[in-house]
Design a protein that fits this description.
By secondary structure, this protein is of the alpha+beta class. It has a domain at 15-59 and 79-88. Helix content is 15%, strand content 25%. A 4-stranded antiparallel sheet has the order 2-1-3-4, covered by helices on one side.
Length: 88
Amino acid sequence: MLKSLIAVKKEKVQTFQVLLLDNDSGQNVEVEEAEQVDFARVQEHLASGGSVFITSKNSQKITPPKDRKPNRKQSHIRNVTALYFDHL
């Protein structure tokens, strides 16, 4: 009976995308996907003059708009979390 009273909610695994941008003539971009952000790597990349863009991969799942007119009473706000670093 106790088990039926306790609801176990599974948490979704958060996946981050880290884009390491080189600020040179080649403008190379390296993309890393991981459950945890390696801030030592981010700090090293920023120290070498690059830029870093960090976003949650889960927040990118946005459904495309439908062909019909949206109902003005409904809110179509989407939350997207993004961080951009260009220096320390």
